[in-house]
Amino acid sequence: MNALTLADARSIIAAAEARAEEIGQPMNIAVVDAGGNLISHVRMDGAWLGSIDISINKAFTSRAFDIQTKDLGDNSQPGNQFYGIHASNHGRIMIFAGGVPLSRDGQVVGAIGVSGGSGEQDQTVAEAGAGAL
């Protein structure tokens, strides 16, 4: 079975939280399933309220296009092939770092989205979470 479980999501979030604590930046961390539906979300103490929605939408974006959001962002700048993509899907598309697809046995089974710090901080925390799967 390749579907992500709540136990998987909790393990992914725990690894991401550990990295966020290590770098001293409270984060919002979201995990979605293969359909882009939220499985679990954590708002660490002190993390920005505005980043709740962003973290969930980063996870959705990463799964919707099976791409890291930082890479989508690189390709969505003026003059590039995905310019304007952030306006699609009722504005849910996030084009900055912190969304990473989650794969098992070579198949994308969901994604993690992290928000609350700089793009680099969000990305390193998301990668730590993804590494737990």
Automatic annotation (TrEMBL):
InterPro entries, per the entry: GlcG_carb_metab_protein, PduO/GlcC-like, PduO/GlcC-like_sf
Family matches, as Pfam families: HbpS-like (PF03928)
Its domain of life?
A: Bacteria
Q: Which organism is it from?
A: Crystallibacter crystallopoietes
Which PANTHER family does the annotation name? PROTEIN GLCG (PTHR34309:SF1), SLR1406 PROTEIN (PTHR34309)
Spell out the protein name for this chain.
Uncharacterized conserved protein GlcG, DUF336 family
